Amino acid sequence: MDESRRNDTYYLAVAIVPPKDLKRLRSALRALLFPGQRELHFYNEKQGRRKLLLSKLVESGPRVDIYRTSCRQGEERARQECVARLTDDLLDLQGHRLVFDSRASRDTFDVHTIRSVLNKRAGESLLVYEHVDSVDEPLLWLADIAVWCHGAGGDWARRAAPMIGSVIRLDWP
Predict the structure, then answer these.
(1) Got the DSSP string for 65-103?
(2) Tell me: the pLDDT tens digits for 92-108?
(3) Residue 30 phi/psi, 5° resolution?
(4) Under 8 Å CB-to-CB from 61, ≥6 apart: which residues?
(5) pLDDT digits (tens, 9 = 90+) for 25-58
(6) pLDDT (tens digit, 9 = 90+) per residue, 152-171?
(7) DSSP β-ladder status, 97-101 and 128-132
(8) Do the bridges between strand 128-132 and strand 2-6 make them parallel or antiparallel, or are there none, so unpaired?
Protein backbone atom coordinates (compact mmCIF):
# COMPACT_ATOMS: atom_id res chain seq x y z
CA MET A 1 0.00 0.00 0.00
CA ASP A 2 1.31 3.44 -0.95
CA GLU A 3 -0.11 6.93 -1.14
CA SER A 4 -0.11 10.01 -3.30
CA ARG A 5 -1.63 13.45 -3.19
CA ARG A 6 -2.63 15.59 -6.14
CA ASN A 7 -3.96 19.01 -5.21
CA ASP A 8 -6.92 18.37 -2.87
CA THR A 9 -7.23 14.66 -3.70
CA TYR A 10 -5.67 11.95 -1.58
CA TYR A 11 -4.98 8.57 -3.21
CA LEU A 12 -4.18 5.31 -1.48
CA ALA A 13 -3.18 2.39 -3.71
CA VAL A 14 -2.96 -1.26 -2.74
CA ALA A 15 -1.48 -4.04 -4.84
CA ILE A 16 -3.66 -7.13 -4.52
CA VAL A 17 -1.34 -10.09 -5.04
CA PRO A 18 -2.36 -13.74 -4.63
CA PRO A 19 0.19 -15.72 -2.59
CA LYS A 20 1.11 -17.85 -5.61
CA ASP A 21 2.30 -14.72 -7.47
CA LEU A 22 4.35 -13.10 -4.69
CA LYS A 23 7.75 -14.55 -5.57
CA ARG A 24 7.33 -14.02 -9.33
CA LEU A 25 6.29 -10.38 -8.99
CA ARG A 26 9.01 -9.55 -6.46
CA SER A 27 11.63 -11.05 -8.78
CA ALA A 28 10.24 -9.20 -11.79
CA LEU A 29 10.34 -5.90 -9.90
CA ARG A 30 13.87 -6.40 -8.61
CA ALA A 31 14.99 -7.22 -12.16
CA LEU A 32 13.96 -3.68 -13.19
CA LEU A 33 16.45 -2.01 -10.85
CA PHE A 34 19.64 -0.46 -12.19
CA PRO A 35 22.86 -1.75 -10.59
CA GLY A 36 23.14 -0.07 -7.20
CA GLN A 37 19.53 1.12 -7.23
CA ARG A 38 17.69 0.04 -4.07
CA GLU A 39 14.07 0.72 -5.02
CA LEU A 40 11.78 1.99 -7.74
CA HIS A 41 10.17 5.31 -6.94
CA PHE A 42 8.31 6.57 -9.98
CA TYR A 43 8.59 10.25 -9.12
CA ASN A 44 12.39 10.01 -9.30
CA GLU A 45 12.52 8.27 -12.69
CA LYS A 46 13.01 10.02 -16.04
CA GLN A 47 10.08 10.03 -18.46
CA GLY A 48 11.50 7.43 -20.86
CA ARG A 49 12.30 5.06 -18.04
CA ARG A 50 8.84 5.60 -16.56
CA LYS A 51 7.27 4.43 -19.81
CA LEU A 52 9.52 1.36 -19.93
CA LEU A 53 8.86 0.46 -16.28
CA LEU A 54 5.13 0.88 -16.66
CA SER A 55 4.95 -1.27 -19.79
CA LYS A 56 6.94 -4.04 -18.06
CA LEU A 57 4.69 -3.92 -15.02
CA VAL A 58 1.49 -3.97 -17.04
CA GLU A 59 2.83 -7.08 -18.83
CA SER A 60 3.38 -8.83 -15.50
CA GLY A 61 -0.35 -8.58 -14.74
CA PRO A 62 -0.69 -7.13 -11.23
CA ARG A 63 -3.91 -5.66 -9.87
CA VAL A 64 -3.87 -2.39 -7.95
CA ASP A 65 -6.97 -0.93 -6.33
CA ILE A 66 -7.09 2.79 -5.63
CA TYR A 67 -8.98 4.56 -2.88
CA ARG A 68 -9.47 8.28 -3.24
CA THR A 69 -11.02 11.07 -1.26
CA SER A 70 -10.78 14.78 -0.67
CA CYS A 71 -8.11 15.94 1.74
CA ARG A 72 -9.58 19.41 2.31
CA GLN A 73 -10.13 18.49 5.96
CA GLY A 74 -6.58 17.23 6.31
CA GLU A 75 -4.36 14.66 4.67
CA GLU A 76 -4.16 12.39 7.72
CA ARG A 77 -7.93 12.32 8.05
CA ALA A 78 -8.24 11.43 4.37
CA ARG A 79 -5.65 8.69 4.74
CA GLN A 80 -7.38 7.13 7.72
CA GLU A 81 -10.74 7.12 5.88
CA CYS A 82 -9.02 5.20 3.09
CA VAL A 83 -7.21 2.84 5.49
CA ALA A 84 -10.49 2.02 7.27
CA ARG A 85 -12.30 1.24 4.02
CA LEU A 86 -9.32 -0.73 2.68
CA THR A 87 -9.20 -2.82 5.86
CA ASP A 88 -12.92 -3.58 5.60
CA ASP A 89 -12.50 -4.53 1.94
CA LEU A 90 -9.53 -6.80 2.72
CA LEU A 91 -11.57 -8.56 5.39
CA ASP A 92 -14.33 -9.11 2.81
CA LEU A 93 -11.73 -10.56 0.40
CA GLN A 94 -10.27 -12.70 3.20
CA GLY A 95 -6.93 -10.97 2.72
CA HIS A 96 -4.05 -12.26 4.80
CA ARG A 97 -1.40 -9.55 4.84
CA LEU A 98 -1.37 -5.78 4.49
CA VAL A 99 1.97 -4.04 4.06
CA PHE A 100 2.31 -0.28 4.37
CA ASP A 101 5.15 1.90 3.20
CA SER A 102 6.34 3.19 6.55
CA ARG A 103 5.90 6.82 7.53
CA ALA A 104 7.91 6.41 10.74
CA SER A 105 6.17 8.06 13.71
CA ARG A 106 2.90 8.49 11.79
CA ASP A 107 2.49 4.69 11.43
CA THR A 108 0.64 4.70 14.75
CA PHE A 109 -2.34 6.41 13.10
CA ASP A 110 -2.70 3.47 10.69
CA VAL A 111 -2.38 0.93 13.49
CA HIS A 112 -5.12 2.67 15.49
CA THR A 113 -7.47 2.72 12.46
CA ILE A 114 -6.84 -0.93 11.57
CA ARG A 115 -7.36 -2.08 15.15
CA SER A 116 -10.61 -0.14 15.30
CA VAL A 117 -11.91 -1.89 12.16
CA LEU A 118 -10.69 -5.30 13.34
CA ASN A 119 -12.35 -4.82 16.74
CA LYS A 120 -15.69 -4.22 15.03
CA ARG A 121 -15.28 -7.44 13.06
CA ALA A 122 -13.62 -9.61 15.70
CA GLY A 123 -13.14 -13.22 14.71
CA GLU A 124 -13.54 -12.62 10.99
CA SER A 125 -9.90 -12.52 10.04
CA LEU A 126 -6.32 -13.33 10.75
CA LEU A 127 -5.19 -10.24 8.87
CA VAL A 128 -1.58 -9.37 9.57
CA TYR A 129 -0.39 -5.82 8.95
CA GLU A 130 2.97 -4.15 9.13
CA HIS A 131 4.86 -1.04 8.11
CA VAL A 132 8.13 -1.56 6.23
CA ASP A 133 10.60 0.53 4.31
CA SER A 134 9.85 0.36 0.58
CA VAL A 135 13.42 -0.82 -0.03
CA ASP A 136 12.50 -4.06 1.75
CA GLU A 137 9.26 -4.85 -0.11
CA PRO A 138 9.26 -4.52 -3.92
CA LEU A 139 5.49 -5.02 -4.11
CA LEU A 140 5.12 -1.54 -2.61
CA TRP A 141 6.63 -0.24 -5.85
CA LEU A 142 3.59 -1.51 -7.76
CA ALA A 143 1.29 0.65 -5.68
CA ASP A 144 3.63 3.64 -6.01
CA ILE A 145 3.76 3.41 -9.81
CA ALA A 146 0.04 2.76 -10.27
CA VAL A 147 -1.07 5.60 -8.01
CA TRP A 148 1.40 8.05 -9.55
CA CYS A 149 0.09 7.27 -13.04
CA HIS A 150 -3.56 7.31 -12.04
CA GLY A 151 -3.17 10.62 -10.25
CA ALA A 152 -1.28 12.16 -13.17
CA GLY A 153 -4.20 11.39 -15.49
CA GLY A 154 -4.09 11.64 -19.26
CA ASP A 155 -1.74 9.29 -21.08
CA TRP A 156 -0.22 8.01 -17.84
CA ALA A 157 -3.61 6.90 -16.52
CA ARG A 158 -4.40 5.29 -19.88
CA ARG A 159 -1.12 3.36 -19.86
CA ALA A 160 -1.66 2.16 -16.27
CA ALA A 161 -5.35 1.29 -16.75
CA PRO A 162 -4.76 -2.46 -17.38
CA MET A 163 -3.32 -2.86 -13.89
CA ILE A 164 -5.96 -0.77 -12.10
CA GLY A 165 -8.61 -3.02 -10.58
CA SER A 166 -11.07 -0.73 -8.83
CA VAL A 167 -11.14 2.95 -8.04
CA ILE A 168 -13.13 3.52 -4.88
CA ARG A 169 -14.23 7.12 -4.37
CA LEU A 170 -14.94 7.75 -0.72
CA ASP A 171 -16.09 11.33 -1.33
CA TRP A 172 -18.64 10.33 -3.95
CA PRO A 173 -22.25 10.87 -2.84
Answers:
(1) EEEEEE-TT-HHHHHHHHHHHHHHHHHHTT--EEEEEP-
(2) 988 889 999 999 999 99
(3) -60, -35
(4) 163
(5) 999 999 999 999 999 989 889 999 999 999 999 9
(6) 999 999 999 999 999 999 98
(7) parallel
(8) unpaired
Q: Are 3 and 64 in contact (CB under 8 A)?
A: no
Return the SS3 of 114.
Answer: helix
Indicate the residue type of 124.
Answer: E
Asked if pLDDT for residue 150 goes beyond 80, the answer is yes
> Which secondary-structure segment (H or E) carries 165?
strand 164-169
**DSSP class per residue in 7-69:** TTEEEEEEEE--GGGHHHHHHHHHTTSPTT-----GGGS-HHHHHHHHHHHHHH--EEEEEEE
State the burial class of residue 10 (Cβ atoms within 10 Å of its Cβ: 0-12, 13-18, 19+). Answer: buried
- The amino acid that residue 11 corresponds to is Y
Taking Cα atoms as reference points, which of 21, 170, 85 lies closest to residue 29? 21
